[in-house]
Amino acid sequence: MEQYVIKGGNPLVGEVDISGAKNAALPIIAAAIMTDETVYIDNLPDVTDIHALLTAIESVGAVVTRIDRHSVRINGSQVRDYLIDGEHIRRIRASYYLLGALLGKLHKAEVALPGGCNIGLRPIDQHLKGFRGLGATAEVSYGHVVASADRLVGGHIYLDVVSVGATMNIILAAVMAEGTTIIENAAKEPHIVDLANFLNSCGASIRGAGTDVVRIRGVQHLHGTEYTIIPDQIEAGTYMFGAAITKGDIVVRNVIPKHLESITAKLVEIGCEVEESDDCVRVVSSKPLRRTNAKTLPYPGFPTDMQPQMTVALGLAQGTSIVTESLFENRFKYVDELIKMGANIKVEGNSAIIDGISEYQGADLSSPDLRAGAALVLAALAADGFSTIDNIQYIERGYEDFHIKLQSLGAHIDRVDSEKEATRYKFEIVS
Ligand code: UD1
Question: Is residue 61 a contact partner of residue 81, using CB atoms and an 8 Å limit?
Fold first, then answer.
């Protein structure tokens, strides 16, 4: 079984390049099948969620030509099938973007219920409400989501909760509908703006993405384009917190500092120095970490996908901190693993109450989901002694070359696939 073996204690120091944003690339890959012309996309992250979605679009007839690790050409002219199912697709959340894309293109879509990280119930009622608002029927039947329409007609849709997935799915379904669609209470994440920019570069007419009212004037067809995905805000934030947690000094390159403002603000609050330039951010952690409180919120609030990394940092801060999770109800499962490392954290409802300790101790850990897994790696890098982390397939869903990038920052980490290799690595590091 693949796992990471980590010897803690080395500060992360150096420069790291951030990959393209997974959560922007996924809806853009789905959107790419909507045009019959060829689309070229680069700066794709080389992570398993992206491969799963590319395989899924091939299964309905898209022709995917992989140019290199980070770029593909996609031609959707032969997409006729509207059924998306299979083991690989059931594991990823973003399969639901194929609902909006296929509904928009073929007026019919049937997609196995989305999987992804088990961080809460994760309903899709707002996606279905949006499709219905465009005149489609949409329901869950025998483990599949089925949507169809004779005609898609623009509508006025008010989202009851701010949902990234529902906002993007409605944009996809509306982009070639008749008339204008207005989405109110839309999510404002940078990846929503990226999807809108991509679709606009294909001839769509989307205004207001990045605000809470998005207006989509339907067009008759979309054309080909060449497009570069934005950098990954959460990957960048993870390395920034890596500097804080390990008392390091990291320059995080190829980022959009504006997208990182809520993360930067928290790092400054807990005592780190953050310097921004055009496309880099440097984080230096030279003083003891200070306590604070944090609450996850939709963008531009502090991201839920950075909540575990924040908790790991506050676990080493002086004093008592409170982290409140307001988006997903099951996102503190990793706290049990941190407690194995000596952390003093109590979870009450949707808050973690954290009494900082001076050091984590190495332990054998298991990654419960993507972001929590990455946060446990950061804790292990700061801990005294060796740790192992299994279930790393979750981490590899969203972090390209995670252990290799960390090694380049001076971390003692390796990816092994047997107990024997883990023991050999530990022996090598000690001797
Ligand atoms: C996306 C991200 C995920 C991130 C999350 C919030 C992808 C593939 N995943 O997930 O990494 O943590 O945004 O930034 O991009 N909700 C409903 N009904 C719905 C849809 C959502 O009640 O129909 C609720 C959810 O339970 C949650 C909140 O709305 O409480 C936000 O969820 P949403 O923004 O939709 O998250 P995802 O798109 O699933």
Answer: yes
Alpha helix ranges (H) inside 261-347: 261-269, 307-314, 335-340
Q: Which CATH superfamily is domain 22-228 in?
A: Enolpyruvate transferase domain (3.65.10.10)
Q: Under 8 Å CB-to-CB from 402, ≥6 apart: which residues?
A: 374, 377, 395, 396
Mean pLDDT value of segment 339-348: 98
Residue of 144 and 253 predicted with greater confidence? 253
**Start-end of CATH 3.65.10.10 domains in the chain:** 3-19+231-430, 22-228
Q: Is 94 in the pocket of ligand 1 (CB under 6 A)?
A: yes
- Is residue 67 within 6 Å of ligand 1 at its C-beta? no
Tens-place pLDDT, residues 195-234:
999 999 999 999 999 999 999 999 999 999 999 999 999 9
Which residues is 117 bridged to in the sheet? none
The C-alpha angle with vertex 70 and arms to 66 and 74, in degrees rounded to 5, equals 40
CB of residue 50 inside a 6 A radius of ligand 1: no
User: What ranges make up the beta strands (E) of 297-404?
Assistant: 320-324, 344-348, 351-355, 364-366, 386-390
Ligand 1 atom having least distance to the Cα of 114: 39
Let me know if 117 is a catalytic residue: yes
The token duo for 121 is 């119930």
Q: Say what the alpha-carbon torsion angle 151, 152, 158, 163 is, to the nearest 10 degrees.
A: 130
Give the side-chain half-sphere CA count within 13 A for 261. 7
| C-alpha 413: how far from chain center | 23
> Could you tell me if the CB of 93 is within 6 A of ligand 1?
yes
Q: In this predicted structure, which of 274-278, 325-329, 361-365 has the lowest mean pLDDT?
A: 325-329
What tens digit of pLDDT does each residue of 117-131 get? 676 668 899 999 999
CATH superfamily of 3-19+231-430: Enolpyruvate transferase domain (3.65.10.10)
Percent of the chain with pLDDT over 70: 98
CA of 419 to the centre of ligand 1 (A): 37
Six-digit token pair at 216? 């989509």
Give the ligand 1 atom nearest the CA of 168. Answer: 38
Q: How confident is the model at residue 49 (pLDDT cuts 50, 70, 90)?
A: very high
Q: pLDDT tier at 431 (50, 70, 90 boundaries)? A: confident
Tell the residue nearest (CA) to atom 32 of ligand 1: 163
**In whole angstroms, how far apart are CA 42 and each of 142, 361, 368?**
37, 41, 30
Q: How many residues does the chain have?
A: 431
